[in-house]
Design goal:
Layout: E1 3-12, E2 15-24, E3 35-41, E4 48-51, H1 53-61, E5 65-66, H2 68-77, H3 79-91, H4 96-200, H5 205-265, H6 268-331
Parallel strand pairs: 1-5
Antiparallel strand pairs: 1-2, 2-3, 3-4
Helix pairs in contact: 1-3, 3-4, 4-5, 4-6, 5-6
């Protein structure tokens, strides 16, 4: 009976593994085997080879013939070399002790070579992985810097819009302050009229004084309303300024991070994108400063409007007192 040592396929489609078997040469590839000697799995890296050394050597000693693939596997595991040495012992070329000594030396050298190759592959794999990660990080840093630049640019636009809003609020507060001032002047004028009517004490003086007091009160009410408008505008300006300042600070921080990352990696593209982010952040900061200045102006105008409204209120009160005096005189 011609015995062969070969691989017997198992596993799934496109994912095979093999039994190492001793089989009758007349059997089909996946037919009945005489003895299973191990396994071979090419799906792992490196491939997994498990061989019953002594039994494989036994079958070689009794004349079993390995296939080409099995010959390579048995050579790698040292079975063929051990068989060669034992054949030399049978022929009297050297003693069994010498054969064992030579095989031990071969096994040590083989293990050294395998270890060196494995370490070399691992080192190369680590180097390739490090290089790949470095390249990926450079791309990520560039993309991150570009995103930060866009965010900083958007922050600049938002800050500029906030500055414009703050400036509009400042204009509203300024106009409100002017209206309040006019209303205050009118209230003071009506107070003067009421006071003059009360001092005159003639017929109809009380009516004139009362009309002047009403006009003064209306002017004071207008002054108070516009003062509230100015105050609201100042608050809006302040809110817009704070928002633009926060946005500008965030953009500046992110731009700084992008510059540091680009400096560490030394990538020109990432550095360029980071510089763009810095410029956009600086523009956002300038817009935030403009918004802060506009907010401060709006606050000052609102305070002036409030003062004018208070003066108008006092003038209206004076006019009302003068109207009462005129009414008392007319009754007398």
């Amino acid at each position: 009976m011609a015995t062969k040592l070969r691989l017997q396929r198992h596993g799934k489609k496109r994912y095979p593994y093999y039994y190492i078997v001793a089989v009758d040469g007349r059997e089909k590839r996946d037919g009945k085997f005489i003895e299973r000697l191990g396994e071979y799995d090419p799906n792992t890296d490196p491939a997994t080879i498990n061989v019953d050394f002594d039994r494989a050597l036994h079958w070689l000693q009794v004349g079993a013939q390995p296939t080409d693939t099995m010959r390579a596997i048995l050579s790698y595991k040292g079975v063929l070399h051990k068989n060669h040495l034992l054949n030399g012992v049978k022929k009297g070329a050297f003693t069994e002790e010498e054969a064992e000594k030579r095989f031990a030396a071969w096994a040590a050298e083989k293990e050294s070579k395998v270890r060196a190759k494995r370490e070399g592959l691992l080192a190369q794999n680590d180097a390739d992985t490090a290089e790949k990660m470095k390249a990926e990080k450079a791309i990520a840093d560039k993309r991150s810097a570009e995103i930060l630049a866009k965010q900083a640019e958007a922050a600049g636009i938002i800050a500029a819009a906030a500055a414009a809003e703050a400036a509009d609020a400042a204009d509203i507060a300024d106009e409100a302050s002017d209206i309040a001032e006019e209303a205050s002047d009118q209230a003071e004028a009506m107070a003067d009229v009421a006071e003059a009517a009360a001092a005159d004490g003639g017929e109809g003086a009380a009516e004139v004084a009362e009309e002047a007091a009403e006009a003064a009160a209306e002017s004071a009410a207008i002054a108070e309303e516009v003062a509230e408008v100015a105050e609201d505008a100042a608050k809006e300006a302040e809110t817009a300024a704070e928002a633009s300042e926060d946005i500008a600070e965030e953009a500046a921080e992110k731009a700084e991070e992008a510059v540091e990352a680009a400096a560490e990696e030394g990538t020109a593209e990432a550095a360029e994108a980071a510089e763009e982010a810095v410029e956009a952040a600086e523009e956002a900061a300038e817009a935030a400063e403009d918004a802060a200045e506009a907010a401060e102006e709006a606050k000052e105008d609102a305070e002036e409007a409030a003062e004018e409204a208070e003066e108008a209120k006092e003038a209206a009160g004076d006019a009302a007192e003068s109207a009462e005096e005129a009414a008392e005189k007319e009754e007398e």
